[in-house]
Amino acid sequence: MITPPLNPALFHLDRDHLWVMHCSEGPVPRAALRAVRASMHKELQPWALRWEEDFLGLPAEVRAAAAAVLGGRSEDISLSPTTSSGLVTVAQGFPWQPGDEVLAPLGEFPSNAWPWLALRARGVAFREVPLWEGHRAGAEAWSSLPPTVGADPEARLVAAIGPRTRILTLSWVRFQDGLKLDLQRLGAACRERGVHLVVDGIQAIGTVPADVEGLSAFATGSYKGLLAPEGLGFLWTEESFRQSLSPCGSWLSVEGATDFSRPSTDFNRAWLPDGRALEPGGPNLLHASALLESLRLLNGVGIPVIATHVTHLQRRLLAALKASAWSAETTRLQAVLDAGRLGSILSFHHGGGGPERLDRLLKTGYRRGIFASVREGYLRVAFHGFHSETDADRVAAWLGGTKPS
Ligand SMILES: Cc1ncc(COP(=O)(O)O)c(C=O)c1O
Predict the structure, then answer these.
(1) Of all atoms in ligand 1, which is nearest to the CA of residue 200?
(2) Helical (H) or strand (E) element with 169
(3) What distance in angstroms lies between residue 147's CA and the mean position of ligand 1's atoms?
(4) 217 and 337 share a domain?
(5) Residue 23 forms part of a structural domain
(6) Given 244, 270, 300, which residue is the final one in a domain?
């Protein structure tokens, strides 16, 4: 048995709850609880809160740790409560002309649809592109065929770019079918065509090594693969793209904002050139203290190590299910995995069984203390760095004893 790279003892997990659904909500490490307690103690006695260390220093540390996870620069990070808020910042700040268009894959999670749909009143269209033959979403989601290894979703997206497309926005890893898109290939194609690539990264960050080269923006919350509580995430923006956005206009997004030797009411100041220009105001110190612990843990181990471990567990599970009633679905997933097209979510397609079947299946899992999730026609099993081979074997014993349809 190999040792999980994230020591499970650092979490508050137990045998009755095999949590294979960080794609919904990740467990936070105990260190995050200790950090939040310490932070709250300072709030009990505000004189214990230090300006340099806490108010300025803690957010700066989180930006640096977030940049390390992304392989980017901390100046390009803006702390932002959620994936949605990061995408809204980009959508609202972009210099649109009526008739412009945003392109997206069919069936994005709504946090990557509503910020763009909200631009309709400004004459900006939102156009969805099916990623493979038989791909469906919305009211028809359950009749969608699943992605296969022969699909070339990037080619479809690039071919769909039109003369008024200004932004291509997409999830790095998709929430329902688990498909991972090739950001570097898309980024290069977008650059060639003068289009900006904007990424919703929440389903990949923390379990897939990141590379922001070629991207214009990357938004994420931290409560899934980043293993932090809900309420604080970050937005990464490429420098020149950021300069083209309207700043958020918080009091901390201007030069010298915290230099109280100068009257704060002196509004003759420039916007900050770095990511702080896109932050919403005073920092969320409680969440920042928790997020910093999670980021330190992940950076300490390294995302590539976590990704390799996750793939190992996925292979082990699929191998164990080869001779089961899930055999055909296992073959599809194995091929997609071998092609490097999956993140941490193994999405088993319902294969005609429908919502009731998957719901029953989930419940048999709960009775065995296994917690997975269902979204739009797929049963999602998500491994992370804290899962063990024994965990994968437990999932195999559960699914191997059931029928998909
Ligand atoms: C792809 C994707 N994006 C975004 C979110 C969540 O967005 P937010 O951070 O705004 O809550 C989810 C949640 O399931 C998701 O799956």
Answers:
(1) 3
(2) strand 165-171
(3) 21
(4) no
(5) no
(6) 300
Hey, which of 87, 181, 203, 291 would you mutate to test ligand 1's pocket, going by the most ligand atoms within 8 Å of its Cβ? Answer: 203
Residue 404 pLDDT exceeds 60: no
Kindly tell me if the per-residue pLDDT of 247 is higher than 70. Answer: yes
- One domain, residues 269 and 344: no
Q: State mean pLDDT over 346-369.
A: 96
Query: Residue 327 sits in which domain range?
Result: 302-400
Is the predicted pLDDT of residue 95 greater than 90, yes or no? yes
Where b means 16+ CB within 10 Å and e means fewer, 224-238 reads bbbbbbebbbbbbbb
109 C-alpha to center of ligand 1: Å? 6
Residue-wise pLDDT tens digits, 72-93: 999 999 999 999 999 999 999 9
Q: Residue 355 phi/psi, 5° resolution?
A: -60, -35
pLDDT at 20 over 90: yes
Q: Count of domains in the chain?
A: 2
Read off the pLDDT band of 403 (50, 70, 90).
low
CB 373 within 8 A of CB 344: no
Nearest CA to ligand 1 atom 2: 109
Q: What is the CATH number of the domain that holds 381?
A: 3.90.1150.10
Ligand 1, residue 85: give the atom nearest the CA: 10
Contact status, residue 147 vs residue 153, Cβ threshold 8 Å: yes
Q: What is the pTM of this model?
A: 0.97
Cβ 201 under 6 angstroms from ligand 1: no
Using the 3D structure, point to which of 250, 281, 300 is the last residue of a domain: 300
Please report, for the domain that includes residue 276, its CATH number: 3.40.640.10
